[in-house]
Amino acid sequence: MSLQTPEREILNFQPHLFKTIAFVSAALFFTRIIFDWKFLIEGHFSKIEFVPLVTALLVFIITSSTRIILSTHSIKQKIGPFFRYETQRSQVEAIKITPTAQYMHKKAHPILFKKLFSKKDQEFTAEYWNRYGVLHFIHSEKIYTLFKMSLTDILLSQLSEEQSTQLIRHLVQDWQLAKPLVEDEFPAQPLVIAQNDIGKYALVLLVVSLLIGLIAFCTPMLILQSLHFGVESYFWMIPCFMFAIGLSFFLIRQEAKSYPFATSILVGLVLGSSLYFLALQINRFYSESVSQKTWTVELKLIEQKEHYQTWQLPKELIDKTGLTEIYIAKKWQNTHTHVELYQSYPITIHQGLFQDYWLTPHDFQPKPVTLETQP
Known about the structure:
The protein is α+β, with helices and mostly antiparallel strands and 375 residues long. 40% of the residues lie in helices and 21% in strands. The chain contains eleven helices and 15 strands. The chain has helices at 16-35, 37-42, 50-64, 101-108, 126-132, 161-174, 190-193, 200-222, 237-252, 260-289, 315-321, and strands at residues 9-13, 67-71, 74-79, 83-88, 92-98, 134-139, 148-150, 153-155, 227-228, 293-304, 308-312, 325-329, 343-351, 357-359, 370-371. Strands 9, 10, 11, 12, 13, 14 and 15 form a seven-stranded antiparallel beta sheet that branches. The radius of gyration is 29 Å and the shape is elongated. The protein starts with 8 loop residues before the first strand and ends with a strand.
């Protein structure tokens, strides 16, 4: 019985591309904080745009924790704090470098290589693909768990020239593998060939996201009867994103395609946004059916245009919604053609769940109560 040698870490580095993205996202996050600092100090959280803030923070967390770790027993690529690709040395038979899937597609259709403006053609030599190709690990290992999958390839373009040189040198030196040669075709392994696209589930989820977004977009015009002007909380985008990313990953990983976790994040962000938008419309429809609170406030007409009117909100609504004015469309103006500019009128306002405020055409029949001097 032979004793297994202890595992020793050889390389541990952050890919150059992810390092750049992490720096940019951190800069965007702190820039957003600086712009919203006044609102943070004053506690006016409704005026803060949380979507770009949270997005920049999530991108920074994922990219800053992405690393490639090579040891004497395995190679791992960690994507974010939880998910990783991993392959054991004992399972790897060989390593090869091939052109990218995009290049192979263009090679099959030469017209795609024709450039409109560039006069100098790119030379796709062996040196070029050693820097920007795909490093394949030929093996039969199959790992499909929630946070772990088999590592089948690494895009060399995400590494710096020094990082890719070191990685290949140590694979040859410490793993006793033959130096990879550039092949003008993908390795003849069914598993590897199947992983050169994102799969059908990602496309299906994107189409579903677009349909959900279209339904949510048409809902105010076809179903809702009132003018909703509240600013619902952006907090509910977080569970929508988490659910969408989890569902996307559960479906996409079953196809064993390349980068299912990264694909799931991108698809999940689109699907999560559509779900949040639809949830807003459902909440507004429910609010119209079951009003939570109704009261009367004074709105001031401050602008009269051909297609709309601008009404100034009182301070109590400004503090609640973060809005200073609302716009009334022309289709409602037949009920208040007698109103005068710079005059205040009592209007019935309704409140629903999650800071949803609205008013109906029936309630919007202003009667003058105060007359103010035109400024």
